[in-house]
Amino acid sequence: MKYVLLYDAADDILASAPDYFPAHSARVDEFAADGALLMAGPFADPAENGSMAIFTSREAAEAFAYEDPFVLNGVVRDWRILEWYEDSDSGADVGERAPARAI
Question: What SS3 state is found at 72?
Fold first, then answer.
């Protein structure tokens, strides 16, 4: 299982993000070097859809968010962590998971 950190952007993200990007980017590099962060980045329209990052543990995702300059300085309005089963996750067979439902 992996853990997806989702960020909701503040209204002024395009104006405020550049001020804190170097410190945020250093944090990304730090967690990636430790192996806790697998990938991260904004969606095509970050002002509308925010961004995401995939971590190896909930603890790493929480630690990242709690001290991320984007969070601390209001570039991010809100954040949440979701558990994610990737297709290659060997934790359970597909048949053991809840069946997909049509919406």
Answer: helix
Both tokens of residue 5?
């950190």
**CB–CB of 68/10 below 8 Å?**
no
Q: How do residues 76-97 score in pLDDT, each as one tens digit?
A: 999 999 999 987 655 555 555 5
Domain boundaries, the chain: 2-87
The class level of CATH for 2-87 reads alpha beta
pLDDT in tens, 32-85: 999 999 999 999 999 999 999 999 999 999 999 999 999 999 999 999 999 999
**If you compute the radius of gyration of the chain from its CA atoms, what whole number of angstroms results?**
15
